[in-house]
Task: inverse folding
């Protein structure tokens, strides 16, 4: 797929930054949803989090989860937006397990959002 | 690891706005000096920002180990220089040790630090302290250098291996630092990419003397997957640099060929039987498994097509250089191969079929070629292209690199980003000009993850003969600025080392043990090598359109391959074949050792291990001299599989060196 869907979401109201960068239109839609969602207080894709995981082949990789957000009740969550067809990919499963683990240690929730 | 500074972001901004309160008066003077922009060369905004963060972290947050994650091309050396000047002026530290992973990085740092160049260019020392510049002479840790230089000079620069305790000069160098130096600050420039067991122990010993350590890197994740033990205080990414006005680095555009119908010629090594099949055949999937991904770009016919695509991009870049640079610079094609066979093949093709004057640089290159490599991109350099095996990684910075052709697959983010980083420096820095770096890739190399990391635009529909104008230039990004610090989200800190725990737990899940394999021989015996398959023909410009019928795409094939030049694979003699296998195995050995940060003094032994392995698994238990021709060819075809097998398990190579088994009959 040509990556022509990248772009800048300008002046988000709930993010600390002047723009938030999206890599797909779906991510952009999710940004709009987070802006409207009354339970969400803050969100960003610019969080600098890299989570280590081990691929099926045994390679060590770091992956950057999609969204970091804080709910109005103070809960902190990572939201990973994924296409359903990718969910069964063994490396995706490993990423998500590593993500859950990482969040668990920090008292955060890890959610996979499918379309 | 994550950016530890986010929670301080708001306080940090307020600190700057309030005019830098709560720090020593000396430091405040230093900051005032750095900010005053008269006649001297000034720091870029992000460099200044990095310096302020380091100061804030050290003086207000008592952070003694900090990490700056700064994109290649972001001017790390100037930041290091500014921090040294600050520590010397304000914290009474007068000895600075700069560690790097290899000689190429060292040479680049040497250029900036020789004769205190960086301090003179930027005039980092405030009035009254200018004489400090004279105390910052440079000593280089290298074979044959007297350790006395460590005492006589303010700045000590060396490859991390020069402090390893497994060699005599390393012991001596470290002893000098430990015994005769009172206080030291350490700068770790990309050195964390050297995941050797000795690396941590060197830093641990030095920590007793070290008042401060700054790690600088473009890739904060270590090759062994562990995070450095320093705190990340600043992340300045490729996208940040691209959003600057004027920009700091080039934009990346990736070109992948449109693949039509693939035909493979499959050779059975036992019977020598050859068959040609295509993707429509049932056998295809099975045969493809015997193929290494790299063959999609290194077998003769596909390589020719990749080179054609690269040459077209080079032509475009030359045209752009004429218009934006008014011919002041000459774009260069950089070809990255994984072994000498591929490199030589590409070199020959570029020179003979494509008429591009090409330089070949490998670990075995002589002084003359290395000199030529350092002249690449200069206006009077005769070369259009350079082919390299693992060399020219970090530290080799030639802005003229406008096209990178990948004849290898990257599995680790660290090396992938470093190679791409070679092409990021700008030739022309101007508000309205956007330069690109064109990268020639192939879908079968599965680099999507890398293009995600570096924010590249990917075009996967490239025909062999297409030429483009400026439509490839990605749209300008908006700068991402912190505007509402109160909307930052704070993440709970976990105890040091717990992240590593996560990581080890996870490794257990895939039943690999990190780091230690005393019984490595049985692991090697388990490596699989499929049947030898060679790609004889790939068609990439045959697809004219895709039509949607119901829910399925049906590809309409047009006329077949239009490529006019065709040379047969060169027939090579038995001697050449033997020589090629040995050379390839030696290259693979050097590469594997280098990646684990083990010095080349282990190469003879490790080469023996690899040769033994090839003998058992690929040469039907014969030595190279006695093996059948077919077996030799089989082994050569599997060169990249050997490489990938040995690096699959983190720590395997280290274990092979650590637990030496018997004396192997290395064929030298």
Result:
């Amino acid at each position: 797929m040509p990556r022509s869907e990248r772009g800048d979401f300008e002046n988000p109201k709930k993010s600390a930054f002047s723009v938030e960068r999206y890599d797909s239109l779906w991510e952009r839609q999710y940004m709009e949803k987070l802006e409207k969602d009354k339970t969400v207080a803050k969100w960003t894709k610019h969080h600098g989090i890299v989570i280590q995981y081990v691929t099926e082949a045994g390679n060590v990789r770091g992956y950057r989860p999609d969204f970091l957000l804080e709910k109005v009740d103070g809960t902190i969550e990572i939201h990973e937006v994924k296409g359903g067809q990718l969910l069964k990919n063994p490396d995706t499963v490993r990423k998500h397990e590593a993500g859950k683990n990482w969040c668990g240690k920090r008292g955060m929730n890890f959610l996979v959002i499918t379309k | 690891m994550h950016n530890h500074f986010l929670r301080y972001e708001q306080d940090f901004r307020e600190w700057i706005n309030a005019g830098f309160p709560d720090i020593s008066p000396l430091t405040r003077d230093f900051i005032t000096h750095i900010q005053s922009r008269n006649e001297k060369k000034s720091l870029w905004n992000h460099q200044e920002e990095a310096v302020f963060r380091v100061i804030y972290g050290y003086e207000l947050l008592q952070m003694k180990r900090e990490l700056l994650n700064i994109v290649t091309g972001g001017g790390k050396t100037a930041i290091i220089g500014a921090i040294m000047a600050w520590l010397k002026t304000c914290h009474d530290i007068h000895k600075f040790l700069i560690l790097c992973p290899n000689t190429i990085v060292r040479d680049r740092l040497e250029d900036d630090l020789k004769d205190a160049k960086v301090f003179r260019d930027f005039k980092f020392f405030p009035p009254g302290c200018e004489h400090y510049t004279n105390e910052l002479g440079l000593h280089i840790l290298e074979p044959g250098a007297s350790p006395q230089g460590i005492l006589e000079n303010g700045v000590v620069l060396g490859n991390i291996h020069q402090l390893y305790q497994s060699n005599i000069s390393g012991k001596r160098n470290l002893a000098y630092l430990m015994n005769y130096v009172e206080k030291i600050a350490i700068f770790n420039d990309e050195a964390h990419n050297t995941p050797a067991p000795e690396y941590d122990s060197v830093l641990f010993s030095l920590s007793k003397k070290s008042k401060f350590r700054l790690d600088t890197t473009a890739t904060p994740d270590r090759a062994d997957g562990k995070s450095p033990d320093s705190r990340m205080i600043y992340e300045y990414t490729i996208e940040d640099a691209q959003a600057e006005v004027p920009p700091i680095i080039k934009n990346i555009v990736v070109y992948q060929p449109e693949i039509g119908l693939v035909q493979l010629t499959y050779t059975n090594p036992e019977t020598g039987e050859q068959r040609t099949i295509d993707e429509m055949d049932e056998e295809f999937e099975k045969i493809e498994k015997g193929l290494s991904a790299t063959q999609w770009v290194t077998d003769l016919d596909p390589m020719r097509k990749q080179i054609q695509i690269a040459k077209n991009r080079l032509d475009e870049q030359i045209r752009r250089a004429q218009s934006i640079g008014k011919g002041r610079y000459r774009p260069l094609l950089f070809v990255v191969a994984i072994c000498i066979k591929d490199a030589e093949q590409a070199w020959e093709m570029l020179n003979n079929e494509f008429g591009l004057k090409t330089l070949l640089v490998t670990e075995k290159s002589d002084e003359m070629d290395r000199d030529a490599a350092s002249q690449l991109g200069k206006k009077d350099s005769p070369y259009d292209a350079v082919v390299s095996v693992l060399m020219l990684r970090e530290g080799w910075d030639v802005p003229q690199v406008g096209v990178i052709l990948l004849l290898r697959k990257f599995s680790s983010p660290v090396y992938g980003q470093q190679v791409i980083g070679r092409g990021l420096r700008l030739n022309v820095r101007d508000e309205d000009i956007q330069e690109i770096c064109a990268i020639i890739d192939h879908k079968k190399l599965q680099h999507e993850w890398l293009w995600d990391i570096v924010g590249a635009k990917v075009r996967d529909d490239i025909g062999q003969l297409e030429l483009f104008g400026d439509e490839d230039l990605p749209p300008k990004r908006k700068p991402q600025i912190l505007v509402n610090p109160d909307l930052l989200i704070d993440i709970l800190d976990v105890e040091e080392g717990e992240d590593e725990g996560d990581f080890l737990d996870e490794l257990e899940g895939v039943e690999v043990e990190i780091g230690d394999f005393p019984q490595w021989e049985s692991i090697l015996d388990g490596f699989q090598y499929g049947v030898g398959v060679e790609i004889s023909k790939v068609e990439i410009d045959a697809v004219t359109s895709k039509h949607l019928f119901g829910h399925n795409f049906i590809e309409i094939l047009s006329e077949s391959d239009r490529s006019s030049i065709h040379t047969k694979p060169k027939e090579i003699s038995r001697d050449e074949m033997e020589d090629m296998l040995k050379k390839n195995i030696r290259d693979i050995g050097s590469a594997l050792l280098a990646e684990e940060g083990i010095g080349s003094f282990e190469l003879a032994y490790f080469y023996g291990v690899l040769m033994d392995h090839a003998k058992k698994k690929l040469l039907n238990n014969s030595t190279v001299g006695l093996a059948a021709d077919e077996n030799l060819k089989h082994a050569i075809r599997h060169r990249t599989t050997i490489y990938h097998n040995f690096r699959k398990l983190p720590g395997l190579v280290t274990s092979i060196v650590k637990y030496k088994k018997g004396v192997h009959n290395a064929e030298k």
